[in-house]
Amino acid sequence: MNERLNLQDLVDILSRKKDISKKDAERFLRELFALIVEVVAQKQLIKIKNFGTFKLVVINARKSVDINTKEDIEIPAHYKLTFTPDKHLRDSVNKPFAHFESVLLNDGVVFPELEISDSSNEDRNNVKDDNIKAVENKENKEKKKSTNPLVLGLTSLSSIFKSKKSTTKKGATENNEEDNQQTLLQSNHKNNELMKDNEIDDTLLPEELTNAEDEKVFNAPKISGAISEAVEAMENLSDDEHLQEKDENENNESNKNVESMEEDYENWKEEEEKKRIEEAEERKRFEEWKIKQRELMNSEESIESDEDMSEMVTENKSKKRGIFLYFLALLFLILLVLILIFSARNKRSAPEQNLTEQTQSVNDEEGYDDNKAEQTVTNANKEESVPEDNDQNQSVISDDNEIISTPPLVKENDKGNVNAVDKDDLPMTIYLKRGETLRLLSEKYYGNRTFWVYIYEENKNVITNPNGLYVGMKLVIPSKAKYGIDANNTESLRKAKQLENELYSQFR
Amino acid sequence: MTNQELITELSKRLDILPEEVSDILETTVEIFVKNLTKENSVNIQGFGFFDVKRKSQRISVNPISQQRYLTPPKISVAFKSGNTVKEILKKLTIDE
Fold first, then answer.
1. ipTM
2. Is the separation of the CB atoms in A422 and A483 below 8 Å?
3. What's the whole-model pTM score?
4. Could you read off the pLDDT of B50-66 as tens digits, one per residue?
5. Which one of A29, A210, A327, A337 is least enclosed by Cβ atoms within 10 Å?
6. Which of A27, A36, A77 sits opposite B14 (nearest CB)?
7. How large is the angle between the packed helices A230-239 and A149-170, nearest 10 degrees?
8. Inter-chain residue contact B39 with A20, CB threshold 8 Å
9. CB atoms near residue A441 (< 10 Å)
């Protein structure tokens, strides 16, 4: 790495590779460069295959300052030898970064500092992710409703309230409450800003906006108080049946996400802990052994004259070495068993997780439909207040319940993309290795880099930011059928591209 | 001057077969590419200095459509001509 080669090194390598004398190699190289200079001096360009083009360019005269005398001088126009690398050279040099593509930046995308994600942050991100998921479900819903800042304030408060609820369940209150208070202040501040500028809100606060959309519909009449009364409103919200249901749905989801994440983390921590302990033990044993060795050496020296004694000592030594070797073998065995157990457990847990995730998303969607259905029904109730409607209401609810209780496969049947049985091993669980990126993984498993978005989608609960992965991360590579991934299908590619752009604008 | 012309000229000067020249030239290029890929730099006394530069990502703007692009980071080859070459080129008169 970063060696600096000169002509002599080149001569050496060339003579070795081509099996020619160093003299010949040197003659060749010198002649080559002399010829290049000669050709270039005739103002011609010279092209070398797979290497590049040497060419003269004119540098126009410009003014400068003499460094020593500080006088103004003029650098006359002159020629300069330039080198343009050939595609082959360019690509092979740029190979580590080859998978990057230039990306169109949307308006209003500002470059934030790299996200520093600590544990308290992650919870919020999770909630955010859920909301984004919800947004995707309601893609068809109109987005450009005039947003009432007051409603916004309330809904953002309610979202905070939700997150508070979920966090208290988890029992990790302190950090999150601080966090919440911060967001509360922020949201209040934002409200003031929003009065002036609703447009920015569209891009900056998608979660709050969409919350506002679906909650405003039936909450708007209730919300007449000022922001200072928002706490009361929060209680109202919790009284509200439908909202509570929704709350619970979201809570469940975020809780599950967080739990699974925590589980993963715990597993990982345990593993690390065990390894560390073992290493420490090993080191200790090694130290002990070393000390013993030294003692033995000393004793050997002191009793060198006595042959019988020294014989005994060496015998003793070999015995001890045998014991140590035995210990080493034992340790190694234990390690092996541990690794096996862990890999087995992970394999078992992977599909389970996958399944729960699916059911979660289904529940989420159903929950939403549920809400909507009930909402319309209750509206009908209010308007007509006919007892028959109550029956209808009940029947609707029971229907919904049935749907919820059915396994996720039914839902997929509804959608029309039945899971074909995969010939590959997908979905599978992998652990991120050094140097791997979502794009590279996508190319490896799906044959196109653009499909990384689906790996991200699948692992949203683990990946807070697709730009910030860590080595050893547990990722699920979803099956192709789940997202309709087909590297040869332009439609599928286009969809992925679209999603990719959305993600880019979200994370940059 | 194209690659083929270069090979013929070299074979004339070195008095070896063009096929051999082509072979050796290819190997030379290979050595260059390999070393530059490993981010080694190559200095040819009197001719110039081949180096590898890492360039960080930047935002580029399409001047016509005013669209902004995030251009990814890249590693590229840089070449700086040596003093001998510079002296030779100084003597050239500029004609447009």
1. 0.89
2. no
3. 0.39
4. 999 888 888 888 888 88
5. A337
6. A27
7. 70
8. no
9. 20
